[in-house]
Amino acid sequence: MSRTIVDLSPLEEREPLRVAMIGAGKMARFHGDTLRAIRGVILCGISSRSESSGARLTKELGFERAYTDYERMLDELCPAAVFVAVSHSSSYAAARAVVSRGIPCMLEKPVAYSAAEVGELAQLAGRTGALVVVGVNRRYYSVIQQALLAVIQHGPVSGLLVEAHEPILSYRSRRQFEGWLYDQWLMANSIHAIDLLRMVGGEVERVSGFGLSDSEPFGDHFSVSTRHTGDILGSFVAHWNSGGGMSMKIFGTGVIAELVSLESGFISYASGRRIKIQPDEVDRRFKPGLFAQNVAFLRCVCDGSTPAYPASDLADNCRTMELIEQIRQTVSNSR
């Protein structure tokens, strides 16, 4: 496969798309890898609190300039689009700085740690006109899209089961992040699984369930049922520290799609036929879902369009955050 796999080269009367990055960690590198493979994109600047990290990615990915102050970078470079992939504690402030300037941006999840804060950013984007997409890249996994298509080809989705078994004690023992982040792990990481409930099943009308806690403030054993518009039933099950990771089943008429670790799986039919599904070539080359997500975002930047399904904007992400808060409240009330 050639390095350039998508061409977003501008028309003759339009300037190349100048893209900046805030953050220089692992996710910033993943995003940078996808951006380098898109013709018509210029990596104009990167900002990191760590001068050495910014300099390293500048050299590795070919950014034109490196900064330690992202507000200065935004004001000096006036980029056409910005990718925000900062540390968890800095995400809301960095997002607000970009959105307040009306600059189109891709915000890595979690944007904030409450639905109220995400809602405030959505209102700000409405005032400034900023095009904003939240980076829940599992929506773009090629295997998930294949699985969903296989089910709806035989009729509507009738139900889904999403599992997210997180090794939270192992995570805590590594001390990679501050303790407060692990307290918010449903929003920090399990958001990917819970967001899929809405992406596949649609809007949630009712939440019920049970939960227990061995040590976590918001629970570490979850058995939650959701009722969605269109009479779709969903389940979110998570037994932290049991092993297993994230997985999903989508139920339809005479067909079940089963995704193991969300990155591979099978389509099983009532006839007994079983088909293996695998990631496409792009998802094998890049972090799954990231390239398709970023191309969709940049195309909207180029033509001024509104992000379409399966994209998640701030209003949509706010509803996922509200669902997480409902799950936490439901679990708390069941103890």
Corresponding CATH architecture of the largest domain: 2-Layer Sandwich
Structural class label? alpha/beta
Number of helices: 13
Q: Helix and strand succession?
A: EEHEEHEHEHEHEHEHHHHEEEEEEEHHH
- CATH C-level class of the largest domain: Alpha Beta
Runs in which pLDDT lies below 50 for 5 or more consecutive residues are none
Strand order of the largest sheet: 10-11-12-9-13-14-15-16
Strand content: 25-35%
Task: Report the sheet with the most strands, covering strand number, pairing sense and barrel closure.
Answer: 8 strands, mixed
Number of strands: 16
Q: What would you call the shape?
A: globular
CA gyration radius, whole angstroms: 20 Å
What name does the CATH topology of the largest domain carry? Dihydrodipicolinate Reductase, domain 2
Report what the structure shows.
- The protein is an alpha/beta fold.
- The protein folds into two domains: 6-137, Rossmann fold, CATH 3.40.50; 139-287 and 314-334, Dihydrodipicolinate Reductase, domain 2.
- 39% of the residues lie in helices and 26% in strands.
- It has 13 helices and 16 strands.
- An eight-stranded mixed β-sheet has the order 10-11-12-9-13-14-15-16, covered by helices on one side.
- Helix 2 links the parallel strand 4 and strand 5.
- Helix 1 (26-36) crosses helix 12 (290-303), helix 5 (115-128) packs antiparallel against helix 13 (314-334) and helix 10 (191-201) packs across helix 13 (314-334).
- The longest helix has 21 residues, at 314-334.
- It is globular, with a radius of gyration of 20 Å.
- The mean pLDDT is 94.
